[in-house]
Amino acid sequence: MEIHVISQFKSWLQKHWIVSLIGLLGSLASIISIIFIIFPVFINDGLNDGLYTGWIFAGYYNFQQETWQQGPYVKILNRVNQYDKSIIPIVGDTIQVLKPLNIIIYNYAYSKRLYELDSPALKIGVLRPADYTGHKLKKGTKIEVRAVVPSHSSGKPDAIWCRIGL
User: Fold this and answer.
1) 146 and 86 within one domain
2) pLDDT one-digit tens code per residue, 121-158
3) Among the four 7, 59, 71, 163, which has the fewest Cβ within 10 Å?
4) Is the CB of residue 106 less than 8 Å from the CB of residue 120?
């Protein structure tokens, strides 16, 4: 009986090999997608834990005097809006890092990337060890600006934070 069943399966497989191949490819695709969902560490952009964005401190800027009070720690290389003459980066600009800068994500030590889109300046007043990702941008790194948030404290220049795309 077993030999007859195997013989029938071989006969069916010869007639319907394309269906079997499609099923096999579908199963393989499912397995691969599950691996990338369960083990996202395989999807890595060169940093140890798959960061795709984070925040850097560009410097302290005085909007009344239109001057940097400390910094800037970035240089605008390519301005998205050629008519904008501001010396503060804007969304879409390509900037170059002028000194090593920490990549910051609010509460990173405990929440990992949960708050990566939220400016650390709007979440907390002073950075804590938990906000440092452990990654730095090297001097000379060229990167795209994805968001800019000035943070104001009474009587002090604004801290300029840039969310960058890695």
Assistant:
1) yes
2) 888 878 999 999 999 999 999 999 999 999 887 777 89
3) 7
4) yes
Q: Which residue has the higher pLDDT, 50 or 104?
A: 104
Contact 112, 49 (CB under 8 A): yes
Distance CA 95, CA 7 (A): 67
Whose CA is closest to 55, among 122, 153, 110?
A: 122
* Domain span holding position 34: 2-42
57 plus 82 within the same structural domain: yes
- The pTM for the full model equals 0.69
Do 31 and 97 share a domain, yes or no?
Answer: no
Same domain, 62 and 88: yes
Nearest residue to 42 via CA among 53, 34, 50, 51: 50
